[in-house]
Amino acid sequence: MQPRQLPAIGKLLEAPELQALAIRHGAFAVKESLRALQQAARQAGEAPAWAAVPGEYAKRIGAALAGRGYRAVHNFTGTLIHTNLGRSPLDKTAWEAVKPLVTGSMNLEYDLESGQRGDREGIVAERLTGLTGGEAATIVNNNAAALLLVLNTLALNRPVTVSRGELVEIGGSFRLPELMARSGCRLLEVGTTNRTHLRDYAATVGEAALLLKVHPSNYAIAGFTSEVGTARLAELARAEGLPFCVDLGSGALVDLTRFAQLYELMPRKVLDQGADLVTFSGDKLMGGVQAGLIVGRADLIAQLNANPLKRALRADKVTLALLNEVLKLHEDPERLPNALPVMQMLTRPIEELAERAERLRRVLAEKLPGYNLQCRPSEGQIGSGALPDARIESRALVIRHANAAEDRWLEQRLRRTRQVIGRFRHDALWLDVRSVADFEGALSRLAEFRSE
């Protein structure tokens, strides 16, 4: 076929197969892919016979675009709250509850009683104060934004005291000192990487505008160490008339020891120890949507809300509506293991995990001739900076081939064709079943796996 006989792009886009691709991947991407295929034919001087058939274009474009866009994946990494995989899975019931609100109009900033403008965060703030014991609360779009707002409001162009052992770098190479610089305050480092004393903080109170204590997030220092506890820092700050903020990070609103052998400091405990403000995340151990939550003294929260930066950082209606539903669950903690996906993963009995690993083995055994498949004990972790040194007993299917290249090939094929994400450990592919939110869905996807 001569290149001049190639069908018009507009005509091809009318074909049902290509219309379906345009809905899935976007009209622009499909149109550009069509142009690229036809341009290649023109440069070759002769178009292949398939170039007159819309379905053949669809087949090639579909394969080329298959890896683009957001896709649902199955998390077999053993990391429960995986930043790269969207952190905490949302409760489906909570999502269904907010759909009528976020797909239409809602009383986001409208008081139905008075017919006047209302408080967009009031409902969520009230729940937060009830759960944490804080006098007031405010919400922004993530925890880094929460800390940015605190620093910019309370210490603009002034020093903030932080221990050197708490100058963390979080995912994506974001560093606390750089965030502080962008907020407009100046960093006062005290102590050393492994040991900081109360006297180190006390030496700075004459110039500091704020004392800041930061959760170590994704690392732990062990051995010859010393840090100043929240209660002692709060006492120093109160005596000197300085505000004291704790960046708590993960944000567990319930005592995890009632469900598992893990302990994570809660905002309520930190406020009880005397902190004036506490910042934490909504999408880690709280099991909700991405948000930065700030609780504490009412006068300081009022200052944060008055900062023009607050509008730039505020949460949208989807975030607030989902937070409201997730916080409702925390008001009845006994419901959490059955209702909140992250708590379901955390509390799932080891016997159930062993049974799931065996089911997974049976599904894949016949599909992977030449591979050795064994159900093995495993260790998971919370992830996303929560409890960095804690390991959680789990079970995994361990897949190994005599040829290591085959293991790498299998990992790529599972990831690309079934959206199953595992991890390599001890020269084998491990599929840890504790971190999988939708195990039945994952099993169904793997039942369709073809190794050829």
Question: What percent strand?
Answer: 15-25%
- SSE-based structural type: alpha/beta
Average of pLDDT: 92
Model regions low in confidence, pLDDT < 50 over at least 5 residues: none
The count of helical stretches stands at 19
**What form results from the Cα inertia axes?**
globular
Report the C-alpha radius of gyration, rounded. Answer: 27 Å
Q: Number of DSSP strands? A: 15
Order of adjacent strands in the largest pleated sheet = 2-10-9-8-7-3-6
What is the makeup of the main sheet?
A: 7 strands, mixed
| Measured distance between first and last alpha carbons | 33 Å
Portion of residues in helices? Answer: 40-55%
Structural summary, described in words:
With 452 residues, this protein is an alpha/beta fold. 41% of the residues lie in helices and 16% in strands. It contains 19 helices and 15 strands. The protein has helices spanning 9-12, 16-25, 27-44, 54-65, 92-102, 122-132, 143-154, 176-183, 198-202, 230-240, 267-272, 298-306, 309-313, 317-330, 336-339, 341-347, 350-365, 404-418, 439-447; strands spanning 74-75, 136-140, 159-163, 169-170, 174-175, 186-190, 210-214, 244-249, 277-281, 292-296, 371-380, 392-401, 420-421, 423-425, 428-432. The strands form 4 sheets. The protein has a 7-stranded mixed β-sheet with strand order 2-10-9-8-7-3-6, sandwiched between helices. The chain has a 4-stranded antiparallel β-sheet with strand order 11-12-15-14. The chain has a two-stranded parallel sheet with strand order 1-13. Helix 2 (16-25) crosses helix 3 (27-44), helix 2 (16-25) runs parallel beside helix 4 (54-65) and helix 7 packs across helix 8 (176-183). The two termini are 33 Å apart. The mean pLDDT is 92.
